Amino acid sequence: MTGTGIHVDCRRGIPPSADVRIDRAVHAARAFAGRRVDEVLAAVPLLFTVCSTAQTAAAWHALAAAEGRPVARELIAAHGVLVRLEVAREHLWRMLIDWPRFTDRPAAPGALVAMRQLVASGSAGLFDETGPKDTASGAARQTGISAPFAPEPALAIHRDRLETVLGGFDDLLAEHVLGVSPEEWLSLRTLEDLERYASGARGAAAALLRLVSQRCWQTAAAAAPHYLPPLPNADLARRLDEPGADRFVEVPDWEGYACETSPLGRQRGSELMTAVLVGYGPGLYARAVAAVRELAGTSLAVRDLLEGWAPSPISAGGYAPGAAVAQVEAARGRLVHRVRVDAGSVVDYRIVAPTEWNFHPEGTLPRAVAALDGGDGGELTAQADLLITLLDPCVSYSLEVH
Q1: Confidence band, pLDDT 50/70/90 cuts, at residue 236
Q2: Which pLDDT score, from 0 to 100, does residue 104 have?
Q3: Which of 259-263, 327-331, 398-402 shows the lowest mean pLDDT across its residues?
Q4: What is the mean pLDDT of the chain?
Q5: What is the pLDDT of residue 278?
Q6: Which of 47, 119, 148, 291 is the most exposed place for a label (fewest CB within 10 A)?
Q7: Which residues pair with 374 in a beta bridge?
Q8: What is the pLDDT of residue 286?
Q9: Could you write out the DSSP letters of every residue in 144-202?
Q10: pLDDT above 60: residue 136
């Protein structure tokens, strides 16, 4: 197996097993050392094109904390809205492009174009993107920094525009993913409610849940994960400052566990997810439901953020002079940036991405593969492929079954 990405080598047996290898530039942030803060902010979305909003938000808030710049709660919330919309866009991509591979439904790239337009409109409903060139925001744009992440973003919240965006988003979900309104989907409370919905609804979500049920895969891959707990910034900083920091970036663990950070971890406390986990365990069915539930709850989450009723998916704090950590709940899980700054330039920069947690060689994926059907090569291949898709790596992957 060659090439950049994630390589999974499964072996048939009772139970089956898997070797996981990641080949990607996990230390790319080293390139930021010696660069000015504004240069780093301009470079982040160019270097990290997947989840670029989450990456840029993590960089912006880590650098602000390292430089001791106070950040208003309203700005943290607005950045959180942008991250939440990106999470929705990433989930849509999986459900409208990748999930149809398993259900024989046609992909729906047109809906993704519409979603990109909605995300752009959402940003315009939060920030002034047309300011004069002599303002801080205008000067930042000339260096390639987008208006929401200028040194002093011009926050301008237009609730009417945002409600139009959220209405369009809910319509898109109803038509292409849920087959019902997000409000109706979120009213599902029990396993019976969910199975009744999946048996008759249209859309990508119901199609995948039907497939999993028809093939009796509900409990496949139901190995109990070690969910990543809340991580104090000071403890994270210690791991990222110590001599073994490179190893932590490459194959992170917490208190000896290769943890999982994912939509399943974020959604598992809801009433519906509790019912699914009790009925089927944390397998293929539960992972699909968790992603759908997170997507269906997007508009409610955005409104709660703007009203101050819910915490932002972004948190940051300094822990030493010129040093800070930011954590962002991105589409695939928790993203961590740790930065050291001196005299307006970056001295050291490290990033721990969700993919390194979720595809740890001793983590969730090999444990879940051991809970698949290892006696049939075709069945094992199909289940493992869906499992990887639901864990959602941020890079391409290869799968071999022997």
Answers
A1: very high
A2: 87
A3: 398-402
A4: 92
A5: 97
A6: 47
A7: none
A8: 98
A9: T--GGGSSS--B---HHHHHHHHHHHHHHHIIIIISS-HHHHHT--SHHHHHHHHHH--
A10: no
pTM to 2 decimal places: 0.94
CA distances (Å), origin 285, targets 17, 88, 99, 164? 21, 19, 13, 33
Do 221 and 286 contact (CB within 8 A), yes or no? no
Q: In this structure, are residues 148 and 123 in contact, taking their beta carbons and an 8 Å threshold?
A: yes
Domain ranges of the chain: 5-401
C-alpha distances (whole Å) from 75 to each of 72, 233, 256, 271 are: 5, 20, 36, 31
17-23 and 323-330 beta bridge pairing: unpaired
- Torsion angle (degrees, nearest 10) of CA 127, 128, 132, 133: 30
- Domain 5-401, what fold? Cytochrome-c3 Hydrogenase; chain B (1.10.645)
Residue 216 to residues 137, 221, 248, 287, 316, Cα–Cα distance (Å): 54, 12, 38, 15, 43
d(CA 128, CA 245): 39
Identity of the amino acid at 257: Y
In whole angstroms, how far apart are CA 222 and each of 218, 324, 364?
Answer: 8, 37, 10
SS3 content of the chain, % helix, strand, coil (to 5): 55, 15, 35
Query: What is the percent of the chain where pLDDT is above 70?
Result: 95
Q: How far apart are CA 145 and CA 151, in angstroms?
A: 9
What is the per-residue pLDDT across 182-205, written as a single tens digit (0 to 9) for each?
A: 999 999 999 999 999 999 999 999
Q: CB of 384 within 8 A of CB of 18?
A: yes
Higher pLDDT, 126 or 142: 126
Angle made by CA atoms 188, 174, 214, in degrees to the nearest 5:
60
Q: In this structure, what is the dihedral angle of CA atoms 316, 319, 325, 327, given to the nearest 10 degrees?
A: -50
Q: Which tokens go with 301?
A: 């989450």
The band of 137, judged by pLDDT with boundaries at 50, 70 and 90, is very low
Let me know how long the chain is.
402
Q: At what angle do helices 204-214 and 284-296 cross, to 10 degrees?
A: 170
Q: Work out the widest C-alpha separation in the chain, in whole angstroms.
A: 67
- Helix, strand, or coil (residue 300): helix
Task: Evaluate whether 309 touches 370 at the Cβ level (below 8 Å).
Answer: no
Which tokens belong to 232?
């104090």
